[in-house]
Amino acid sequence: MSKNVGKTITISVLSILCIVLYLSTQAANRSYHELEENFNKVATIAKETQQKCLEYMNQLSAYEQMINNLNNELMTYE
Q: What does the record list as coiled-coil region(s) (predicted)?
């Protein structure tokens, strides 16, 4: 009788541990997928930001060229 009680307790504890392990795995998977989604969002924002920066740099270069042209034109009148 005592052996059966010990086996039953052992099986019960192992079953509980398996359930805890399963639930922990599910939570870890959810966290991983959330992190992956967030990483993809951040990567998309970084690409968009990089593109905008390149556009602004090109605009600044164009303005700089216009200013240089105006300065050169002014020099001819001095």
A: 46-73
Going by pLDDT thresholds of 50, 70 and 90, the confidence category of residue 1 is low
Amino acid at 57: M
Measured between its terminal Cα atoms, the distance across the chain in Å is 113
7: exposed, middle or buried (Cβ count in 10 Å: 0-12, 13-18, 19+): exposed
CA dihedral 48, 42, 44, 38 (to 10 degrees): -160
- 7-57 pLDDT tens trace: 888 899 999 999 999 999 999 999 999 999 999 999 999 999 999 999 999
In the block, which residue shows the tokens 């052996």? 3
Rg over alpha carbons for the chain, rounded to the nearest Å, is 33
- Tell me the residue length of the chain: 78
